[in-house]
Amino acid sequence: MLTVLMECRDQEAELAQTLSVLVSAAVEGLVSDVVVLDHNSRDGSSRVADAAGCRFHSTWDIVDVLQKARAEWLLLLEPGARLQAGWIDDVMEYLALNRQPARFSPSRTYRKPFLTRIVRSVPPLEQGLILPKQQAVTLAKSGMGLEDIAKGVKTAAKPSRLASEMIPAWVAASAR
After folding, report:
1. Is the pTM of this model over 0.85?
2. 3-class DSSP state for residue 116?
3. Which of 68, 77, 96, 107 is deepest in the core (most CB within 10 A)?
4. For residues 141 and 63, is the Cβ–Cβ distance under 8 A?
5. Cα–Cα distance between 159 and 100 in angstroms, integer?
6. Contact yes or no for 115/128 (Cβ under 8 A)
């Protein structure tokens, strides 16, 4: 089972998009809880999280949040990211057979222009990150965010790549 973690700031619509994809995973028993870590949002992010049954923290310490996660595996996502068909079975199989972190495959439909892909580095959570809770707790220090944890995982060992695709959050943000 997974605990899903997201950080947000004034991303009500993006948060709703991502949470809607997670509903079927909760029904299937893959997602046990969702935690939203807020950075002073002034929109309806807290209402969206509450309506979806998420734990919403406006003040938080990453070490405490990770230790209180219900599941032994974590899924770190950006609000607006949308996991594509087949992701639930792919993740369930991966968790049953592996103990190392993994990322989703980039969407073949939504890609930045070629030159942009070559010049820019990929943000640490653009393809999400699945990792064991214990590894995240070991990497976490007070004051860190989810991106910092993802950077620590990237430095320690290159995560595996899942077959299922994820539409990155920047697609939802660019539609605003």
Report:
1. yes
2. helix
3. 77
4. yes
5. 7
6. no
Strand arrangement of the beta sheet that strand 160-167 belongs to? 55-57, 31-38, 2-8, 73-77, 129-132, 102-106, 160-167, 82-83
CB atoms within 10 A of CB 129: 24
pLDDT digits over 81-110, tens only?
A: 999 999 999 999 999 999 999 999 988 887
Q: How far apart are CA 61 and CA 124, in angstroms?
A: 20
What pLDDT, in 10s, does the model give residues 23-43? 999 999 999 999 999 999 999
DSSP 54: -
**For residue 104, what are the CA distances in angstroms to 35, 77, 85, 130, 163?**
20, 11, 12, 9, 7
